[in-house]
Amino acid sequence: MSQFSPLIDELIEALRCLPGVGPKSAQRMTFQLLERNRPGAQRLASVLARAAEQVGHCRSCRTLTEREECPICADSRRDQQTICVVESPADVLAFEQGGDYRGLYFVLMGRLSPIDGIGPEDIGVDLLVERVKALGVSELILATNPTVEGEATAYFISEQMRRLGVPVSRIAHGVPLGGELEYVDSGTLAHALKGRQRFE
Amino acid sequence: MSQFSPLIDELIEALRCLPGVGPKSAQRMTFQLLERNRPGAQRLASVLARAAEQVGHCRSCRTLTEREECPICADSRRDQQTICVVESPADVLAFEQGGDYRGLYFVLMGRLSPIDGIGPEDIGVDLLVERVKALGVSELILATNPTVEGEATAYFISEQMRRLGVPVSRIAHGVPLGGELEYVDSGTLAHALKGRQRFE
Ligand SMILES: [Zn+2]
Ligand SMILES: [Zn+2]
Q1: Which ligand is nearest to the CA of A67?
Q2: B57 and A123 in contact (C-beta within 8 Å)?
Q3: Which residue of B has its CA nearest to A95?
Q4: Ligand whose nearest atom lies closest to the CA of A107
Q5: Chain segment A83-93, per-residue pLDDT in tens
Q6: What whole-number distance in Å separates Cα of residue B35 and Cα of residue B188?
Q7: Yes or no, beta carbons of A44 and B48 under 8 Å apart
Q8: pLDDT of residue B4 exceeding 90
Q9: Are B103 and B81 in contact (CB under 8 A)?
Q10: Which chain segments does UniProt annotate as zinc-finger regions (C4-type) (chains A, B) (predicted)?
Q11: Confidence category of residue B2, pLDDT binned at 50, 70, 90
Q12: Which among A185, B52, B186, B192 has most CB atoms closer than 10 A?
């Protein structure tokens, strides 16, 4: 393959950093972009460079954003007394596409995983506690994934909230066990939200 | 989705220019890159920008390359008397990965398609004729796809070569090696039958 064209080989290789893209689809993408969609390629290159440089974390909820505070945290029409705790920005998108939830989020950017050395400080528990106090939150909804680590994370956070006297609930109905939130359809997610139970 | 984060929305949208990437996988790619692989994202952005700007066509065979002449055309150890005509640079890669072919290529960058207004000048037939004369080619191998348009293109080129007195061959189409007869489509099977060779 290396006798082909160095820059094209480099592009095929670079595209493989995308999840789910093997050598064959990287080739297909390369030729499709170069043969038929240079403007799309230029635009992707420019947006990608800007995003990789500028996107950081929301100072209030930790989600990915290029602003100091994400548009959801900055929206005063959202219910400031309810926080839904999720593992990743993709989970926020999933809830927003459902459209039923009007409160705020807190994005852990991970989950507790002692085996990988991921502790409470890595998932922003201190910031969450601080935020819950500052807003006077009346309900914290735990929407971590229904995996062993997600459940342990939910349990740990519920313990912190118990100390603060903040009511905690856990989404329950509809999310299949072992499934990942971001792949659940929005109807199921709306159902799971409505059917949440007090976490004890 | 637009209340999320403008730059992130823009990246999700830009990734959809990649073939086979729908909204869900564009999201997954975006979060994976921004959460876990910033160096990969930076590298992809830079290679993509350079490739979209610098990659043009080989002056001898029309394939995609950032050089004036591609490494295959520039390699004097390749057999200069044989040219294999293919539709796209991906076909060149496929032959090169096979490893058996030692001649040159000519890449049409398409196929004749009167319905789409693609005529002989769009697929570089003049350059092919010129090149065949200049090299004193002794065999032209037609490896366009076995589609209606690919066959029509092969036929058109073979007529040009007949006028020049250059011998033309067509790669064999049939049951793939290791393939099972019962899973091969009937068109391929009919073709394989018609193209049968004496067994010795
Ligand atoms: Zn935020
Ligand atoms: Zn060439």
Answers
A1: 1
A2: no
A3: B1
A4: 1
A5: 999 999 999 98
A6: 47
A7: yes
A8: no
A9: yes
A10: 58-73
A11: low
A12: B52
